UniProtKB/TrEMBL annotation:
The keyword Transmembrane does not apply. The lineage of its organism: Eukaryota, Viridiplantae, Streptophyta, Embryophyta, Tracheophyta. It catalyses: GTP + H2O = GDP + phosphate + H(+). Residues 387-412 have a biased composition (Basic and acidic residues). One of its GO terms (cellular component) is signal recognition particle, endoplasmic reticulum targeting. GO terms for biological process: SRP-dependent cotranslational protein targeting to membrane. Residues 273-286 form the SRP54-type proteins GTP-binding domain. This is signal-recognition-particle GTPase.
Length: 448
């Protein structure tokens, strides 16, 4: 297969992981070791930063081990789906749209190092906005390179938008002020300010940007980064955000042989979304950054993804119906109990990831650990039950001998087994009450 798609190397690196699962029945702790190693390697080779790779691999393995069987879905397909969902999450989940000002012109301040494609981007962006019916004006703020001003004027002509210039003798913050006034007079919708890049970050550039920012009070401050620089791009976004405060990033040169590290690291490392991506030198080559489409492109397995989604949907429906039937007939048994508890524990490991986001740390790691420990304890005891006992918890309620045997086989105390049995019956009562309320009836009285 010839891969002209971007991130081709990452795609084939990940493919190695799926291949290793061919012929397996389920995902287990053991059989995901090799595939997880492939995923880790593929991401590192794509120049994703190490802490990001570690968290990603951890999140994927947690889910892979806990994932239930879905009829008709093979383990490798299941893993593809899990990786896809985590990739989407990693890249910020939702598309992050440009924000427009409700009063007066929207001001977009563009920053970035030299050669990343900033000047080209000014014109691309104006062209992009034009298609949305918005007028724009470019302001030439790169006073250190007369060629940059000429380039902007040329590009402006090419896409048919005015360019405000004031030569190279005026301070950028002054040019910004004049340009903005001009735009207001002309009732322009969006003002796009080009600024001077440097080969590296230096104080002069940051100070200048701060000054321009103060004058413009921009709606968007976007850092333009070159996708070819991989995880370095994510570090740059972080630095610019700390120094001047930005609202997002634009990735350029995604059409080149960039490996994916920038696209995958920026949001996670800096907390700032990628809003737009440039995929070529032409004026049309600019588009919004869609995390889901990007993940889809990386995996190159759209059909597998939609198949797994459908299967999951069907199963959720069947599960819910079956569970409802069981509860109504008080048949809720240890198999259901285990299923439920596992689902809750899976949510626990999700909250752990959510917990890393500041302000969302409601569930403490200690609580999650506690829930996971409980699950292990219960699993051990339920595994020591016979299939008949699992389906008929009454047997255990009635027989201390059975409880004693389970305690012994699972290495737990009789008291712990009794507690588990009691818990199941409590759950039956709670669920039955809940169903009664949901059905609109009165709370049913319970015979057991
Ligand atoms: P600046 O120094 O940041 O203003 O960079 P320029 O806008 O002058 O662009 C530097 C070079 O990168 C030019 O040759 C552009 O044509 C090229 N370039 C810009 N954006 C892209 C892109 O998305 N893809 C590719 N392949 N080349 C790009």
């Amino acid at each position: 297969v010839v891969r002209a798609e971007m991130f081709g190397q990452l795609t084939s690196g990940l493919e190695a992981a799926w291949t290793k699962l061919k012929g397996e029945e389920v995902l287990t702790k053991e059989n995901i070791v090799e595939p997880m190693r492939d995923i880790r390697r593929a991401l590192l080779e794509a120049d994703v930063s190490l802490p990001v790779v570690r968290r990603f691999v951890q999140a994927v393995s947690d889910q892979a081990v806990g994932v239930g069987l879905i009829r008709g879905v093979k383990p490798d397909q299941q893993l593809v789906k899990i990786v896809n969902d985590e990739l989407v999450k990693l890249m910020g989940g939702e598309v992050s749209e440009l924000v427009f000002s409700k009063s007066g012109p929207t001001v977009i301040l563009l920053a970035g190092l030299q050669g990343v494609g900033k000047t080209t981007l000014c014109a691309k962006l104006a062209n992009y906005l034009k298609k949305q019916g918005k007028s724009s004006m470019l302001i030439a703020g790169d006073v250190y390179r007369p060629a940059a001003i000429d380039q902007l004027v040329n590009l402006g002509e090419q896409v048919g938008v005015p360019v405000y210039t004031a030569g190279t003798e005026v301070k950028p913050s002054e040019i910004a002020k004049q340009g903005l006034e001009e735009a207001k007079k002309k009732k322009i919708d969006v003002v796009i300010m080009d600024t001077a890049g440097r080969l590296q970050i230096d104080k002069g550039m940051m100070d200048e940007l701060k000054e321009v920012k103060k004058v413009l009070n921009p709606t968007e401050v976007l850092l333009v980064v070159d996708a070819m620089t991989g995880q370095e791009a994510a570090a740059l976004v972080t630095t610019f955000n700390v120094e001047i405060g930005i609202t997002g990033a634009i990735l350029t040169k995604l059409d080149g042989d960039s490996r994916g590290g920038a696209a995958l690291s920026v949001k996670e490392v800096s907390g700032k979304p990628i809003k737009l991506v440039g995929r070529g030198e032409r004026m049309e080559d600019l588009e919004p950054f869609y995390p889901d489409r990007m993940a889809g492109r990386i995996l190159g397995m759209g059909d597998v993804l939609s198949f797994v989604e459908k299967a999951q949907e069907v199963m959720r429906q069947e599960d819910a119906e079956e569970l409802q039937k069981k509860i109504m007939s008080a048949k809720f048994d240890f198999n259901d109990f285990l299923k439920q508890t596992r689902a809750v524990a899976r949510m626990g490991s999700m909250t752990r990831v959510i917990g890393m986001i500041p302000g969302m740390g409601k569930v403490t790691p200690a609580q999650v650990r506690e829930a996971e420990k409980n699950l292990k304890l219960m699993e051990a005891m339920i595994e020591a039950m016979t299939p008949e006992e699992r389906e008929k918890p009454e047997l255990l309620a009635e027989s201390p001998d059975r409880r004693r045997r389970i305690a012994k086989d699972s290495g737990k105390t009789e008291q712990q087994v009794s507690q588990l049995v009691a818990q199941l019956f409590q759950m039956r009562v709670r669920m039955k009450n809940l169903m009664g309320i949901m059905e609109g009836g009165s709370i049913p009285t319970l015979s057991n």
